[in-house]
Amino acid sequence: MPPSRYSKRGDTWEPVTGVASDANGPVDLRGATLRFLAVAQINSIKVYIDSNVPAHGPCVNVEDISANVADRGRYRYEMAIAGVSAAGLFKCELEAIMPNGKVITWPSREANNPEWQIDSDINPPVG
Q1: Domain assignment present for 76
Q2: Which residue, 42, 46, 58, 89, is the most exposed by fewest CB within 10 angstroms?
Q3: Residue 124 lies in a domain
Q4: d(CA 108, CA 95)
């Protein structure tokens, strides 16, 4: 299956967006702490994109910003240069620490993780 997202190394637009849902539909993420994670095996090294690293950019809960019920479960990862400085095929997931302290990860099976292909650029690496 081809990657669900493509970009070039160093490109910070457009944000990664999605909807966290379960069998009942979009999950109420209000008040949750979100973390966007992506990992790629580049040569023999694992390279991570982690929204908990300030230099990689934040992951936000759209529903906390918007009062619109249609935004239930929506999240947005605003990339920063340091977060997209390596080229490779990344597997992605969203982690939410809910207000009650429970941790939920989407997707729940690694085999279902969306893939993000970050290709090399003709410019020298940034960062």
Answers
A1: yes
A2: 46
A3: no
A4: 10
Cα torsion at 76, 82, 84, 89 (round to 10°)?
A: -110
CATH code, domain with 64 = 2.60.40
Question: 3-state DSSP helix/strand/coil percent for the chain, to nearest 5?
Answer: 15, 45, 45
Longest dimension (CA), the chain: 47
Q: Answer whether residue 126 is part of any domain.
A: no
Number of domains into which the chain is organized: 1
Q: Token pair for residue 98? A: 């809910």
Cβ neighbourhood burial of 91 (10 Å; 0-12, 13-18, 19+): middle
pTM: 0.81
Give the pLDDT confidence of 7-21 residue by residue, as tens digits: 888 887 788 888 888
In this structure, is residue 92 part of a structural domain? yes
Q: Are the C-beta atoms of residues 21 and 44 closer than 8 Å to each other?
A: no
CA atoms within 13 A on the CB side of 11: 17
State the residue range of the domain holding 31: 5-119
The H or E element that residue 59 is part of is strand 59-61
